[in-house]
Automatic annotation (TrEMBL):
Belongs to the DEAD box helicase family. DDX52/ROK1 subfamily. It catalyses: ATP + H2O = ADP + phosphate + H(+). Its EC number is 3.6.4.13. Residues 363-511 form the Helicase C-terminal domain. Signal peptide: none annotated. It comes from Leucocoprinus leucothites. This is RNA helicase. Residues 95-118, 537-547, 571-581 have a biased composition (Basic and acidic residues).
Length: 581
């Protein structure tokens, strides 16, 4: 109990005065003299929550660890040195020297780092983009209609690169606007719907966006539709139904953009009902996920099918571990690599903490205690498996917690769509989910993320907690850990440190898990139901049901035998006793 109290009290708490410097970055500041926007003198002030440039201002030279960030320089250096041994959290300190060597352009040192040959200049405003790159006016107008007034850091850098037809690997933290970073330049390059262009000589879909989950593909489709408003673009969210329609070449030839998960595309390709030879822009969103073992062969097939000699390939993610980056870079031609912030590192506006919960059975009471105190809905809760997500949602509901929903890949399409819709409309306060919700999903208002089950990798952690703290908003992420998870704490602690927050000293003193061991992170065997007591109750019920069924079977057998015997003229004592048989 003593240990429990000691450890459960040791989560990371956000001390605003201690982190004053970071807090200042995210609070509205008066515009500074000499920082007027180029084309709009009236809009000197960028809302702090949308101002992703703020990290970079007044930063020169190599990245410095600030002692005011709550972590001693020495402590951070120690962690970084350990990471050099092969941890997936990349230390970007060397980037500066690469940049110097290769004459690379990086106007925002150590916050946005670009690497490659002839890097197009970043832009400060959307107006400059329109002036210099002639973005079609309807797309430009749709930008401001959607409320996008100033580009985020990744947009400033990635959009010109894509507009210049260069291949790109872009790594930028969760919630920093990567979707628009590729949709805007791709749509701008396409200029107009194919159906409205005269003298077309090459037919077929011109842009293809691939995402790992259907929900994310759906969300990207919606973003794309916003940009396409007012013109007759054919933007297709590839599904069973649309795949059937697109089997007709005449329909297919009028399609501008397809957005899809890999599997369905491959199925259509193999069936000969899809042709990707005219694709000029291929985008992999959540690239590291798409390039992992589960999807790699499908992606390779799709990349090979996009065989146009001028196809532009771009990959985006908030995380890109070394292995995935190598595969990505091999796929790209003369690429530019852009990193915003530190690779595999969440933005500091997500307040991260670790909470000790001893063992699996202690998690539910801990979560119920959490929800018995004031919390900020909507909250996303991550579990490791589908049955556990269902079971936890059920437990929370049975414990009187209102508006709990569940979402996982084992549910029907309609159930999944309904859950997403309830979440988007504020009808769901707590969404219990699995890894399927971890990547890309943009529920703007998510204020808190709870890792009920420990994440399975650093990347999983970064993406899960990245469902909050989006588009400049503050967020909170709580990670439960049990004794079994303790060996992997150090890896998560490193991420927290990289984000400029502090972790308890005892975690820093833990040994660093080996690369082999890290593969086992979060993969402990957990029961399918989150409440063992309920499991016992359920087992009793199953036992009782089996006993009743057995008894019925025996009776039926006996009755059947009696009927047979009666018909055979043999006296049945039970029937004779007036029993019903
Ligand atoms: N220039 C902008 N100004 C204001 N809001 C923006 C801008 N660009 C994007 N956003 C908003 O920021 C939010 C996050 O964008 P998006 O989903 O593209 O992030 P992301 O970087 O792709 O995140 P993830 O890594 O989780 O996929 C969205 O709600 C989007 O509407």
């Amino acid at each position: 109990m003593e240990t429990f109290q000691l450890l459960s009290g040791s989560g990371v708490h956000f001390n605003k005065s201690k982190y004053e410097k970071d807090v200042r970055l995210f609070t509205k500041a008066k515009p500074r003299a000499g920082h007027a926007l180029r084309d709009d003198p009236s809009s000197h002030e960028i809302p702090a929550e949308l101002d992703f440039f703020k990290y970079s201002r007044n930063t020169t030279g190599k990245r410095k660890y600030s002692s005011s960030s709550g972590q001693s320089v020495e402590k951070r250096r120690r962690i970084d040195e350990e990471d050099e041994e092969g941890d997936d959290v990349e230390e970007d300190l060397n980037e500066g020297s690469h940049r110097q060597k290769d004459s690379e352009v990086s106007p925002e040192k150590h916050r946005v780092t670009s690497k490659g040959r002839d890097i197009p200049e970043a832009v400060d405003t959307f107006e400059v983009l329109q002036e210099e790159y002639h973005i079609p006016s309807h797309i430009y107008q749709n930008l401001s209609k959607s409320g996008y007034k100033h580009p985020t850091s990744i947009q400033s850098h990635a959009v010109p690169i894509i507009l210049k037809s260069r291949d790109l690997a872009a790594i930028s933290p969760t919630g920093t606007g990567k979707t628009l970073s590729y949709l805007l330049p791709v749509m701008a390059t396409l200029q107009a719907p194919i159906s409205s262009i005269k003298d077309v000589t090459e037919f077929g879909v011109r842009a293809l966006v691939i995402a790992p989950t259907r929900e994310l593909a759906h969300q990207i489709h919606n973003e794309c539709l916003k940009l396409a408003q007012g013109r007759k673009w054919r933007i297709v969210l590839f599904s069973k139904a649309t795949a059937a329609t697109l089997a007709d070449k005449n329909v297919r030839d009028k399609v501008d953009v397809i957005i899809s998960t890999p599997l369905r595309l491959v199925a259509s390709l193999q069936a000969g009902s899809l042709d990707l030879r005219n694709v000029r822009h291929l985008i992999l969103d959540e690239a590291d996920r798409l390039l992992d073992a589960e999807f790699l062969s499908q992606i390779q097939e799709l990349v090979a099918a996009c065989s146009h000699p001028n196809v532009q390939k771009v990959v985006f993610s908030a995380t890109l571990p070394a292995g995935a980056e190598k595969v990505a870079m091999d796929m790209l031609r003369d690429p530019i690599r852009v990193v915003v912030g530190l690779k595999d590192t969440p933005l500091p506006l997500i307040q991260q903490s670790l909470t000790y919960v001893a063992d699996d059975q202690s998690k539910l009471p801990s979560l119920l205690t959490y929800f018995s105190k004031p919390y900020n809905p909507p909250v996303l809760v991550f579990t490791s498996t589908q049955p556990r997500a269902s079971s936890l949602a059920e437990e929370l509901t049975m414990n009187g917690i209102p508006n709990v929903d569940c979402l996982h890949a084992g549910m029907t399409k309609k159930e999944r769509d309904d859950s997403v819709s309830r979440m988007r409309h504020g009808q769901c306060w707590i969404l219990v989910s699995t890894e399927v919700m971890a990547r890309g999903m943009d529920f703007k208002g998510v204020r808190e993320v709870i890792n009920y089950d420990f994440p399975t990798s650093i990347q999983s952690y970064v993406h899960r907690i990245g469902r909050t703290g989006r588009a400049g908003r503050e967020g909170k992420a709580v990670t439960f850990f049990t004794d079994e998870d303790a060996p992997f704490l150090k890896s998560i602690a490193n991420v927290i440190l990289q984000a400029g927050q502090s972790v308890p000293d005892w975690i820093l003193k833990l040994p660093k898990p080996s690369k082999m061991k890290r593969k086992a992170m979060g993969k402990v065997k957990r029961p399918e139901v989150v409440n063992n007591a309920r499991k016992i109750g359920r087992q009793d019920a199953i036992k009782r049901r089996d006993m009743i069924a057995g008894s019925k079977r025996r009776k039926a057998k006996a009755t059947g035998g009696a009927t047979q015997r009666i018909s055979e003229g043999v006296k049945n004592p039970r029937v004779e006793e007036g029993g019903s048989g």
